[in-house]
């Protein structure tokens, strides 16, 4: 039985690590810290592996562990280490990698509070539904909407301060 659990876990790690790593990278913003975050999250998943009711949801479980662990890391004083100067050259072109490569966008995304950053990353970079994001973040769908809306508003305000764009509330009124 244990060998079967280990084989299933190894298969899960081999298949899901690249996607989970991109999530971790977006959450912490540093390549080495993202590796550490993924490793710690996989250890926590391995410990809980026998208790998982549906192994098909293991990736969602691990993604939630990544979010909660990164949030708790941000609260530690030791988290504020110097980030890596550059990302490795062997990146795959997807939204997560484009954000990581765009220094301005990454700087603004990383400046968001952890819950807002998690909502934006999970909703718009990982393309999860509001319900899936709320489950991963351990909050209500309304909280996800609020965190994502506020996070996007802050990103808009920081990224394009020179443009006179109407707020989402104003555009709804004028339409």
CATH architecture of the largest domain, by name, is Orthogonal Bundle
Mean pLDDT: 79
Number of DSSP helical runs: 9
Helices and strands, in order, run as HHHHHHHHH
Strand percent estimate: under 5%
**End-to-end CA span:** 61 Å
Outline type: globular
Helix-and-strand structural type: mainly alpha
Under CATH, the topology of the largest domain can be stated as Rna Polymerase Sigma Factor, Chain: A
Characterization of the model:
- This protein is mostly helical and 175 residues long.
- The chain has two domains: 1-77, Rna Polymerase Sigma Factor, Chain: A (Orthogonal Bundle), CATH 1.10.1740; 92-163, Winged helix-like DNA-binding domain superfamily/Winged helix DNA-binding domain (Arc Repressor Mutant, subunit A, Orthogonal Bundle), CATH 1.10.10.10.
- 71% of the residues lie in helices and 0% in strands.
- The protein is built from nine helices and no strands.
- Helix 1 crosses helix 3, helix 2 (31-48) crosses helix 3 and helix 6 packs across helix 8 (141-159).
- The radius of gyration is 17 Å and the shape is globular.
Can you lay out the helices and strands and say which pair or pack?
Layout: H1 2-28, H2 31-48, H3 58-75, H4 95-101, H5 103-111, H6 114-125, H7 130-137, H8 141-159, H9 168-174
Helix pairs in contact: 1-2, 1-3, 1-4, 2-3, 3-7, 5-8, 6-7, 6-8, 7-8
């Amino acid at each position: 039985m244990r060998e079967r659990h280990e084989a299933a876990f190894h298969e899960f790690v081999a298949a899901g690590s690249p996607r989970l790593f991109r999530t971790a990278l977006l959450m912490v913003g540093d390549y080495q810290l993202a590796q550490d975050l993924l490793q710690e999250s996989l250890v926590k998943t391995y410990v809980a592996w026998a208790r998982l009711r549906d192994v098909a949801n293991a990736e969602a479980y691990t993604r939630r562990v990544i979010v909660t662990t990164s949030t708790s890391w941000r609260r530690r004083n030791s988290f504020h280490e110097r980030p890596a100067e550059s990302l490795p050259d062997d990146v795959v072109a997807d939204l997560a990698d484009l954000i990581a490569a765009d220094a301005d966008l990454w700087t603004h995304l990383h400046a968001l509070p952890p819950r807002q950053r998690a909502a934006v990353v999970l909703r718009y970079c990982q393309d999860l539904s509001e319900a899936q994001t709320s489950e991963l973040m351990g909050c209500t769908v309304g909280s996800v909407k609020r965190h994502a809306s506020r996070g996007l508003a802050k990103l808009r305000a920081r990224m394009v301060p020179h443009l006179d764009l109407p707020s989402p509330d104003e555009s709804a009124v004028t339409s």
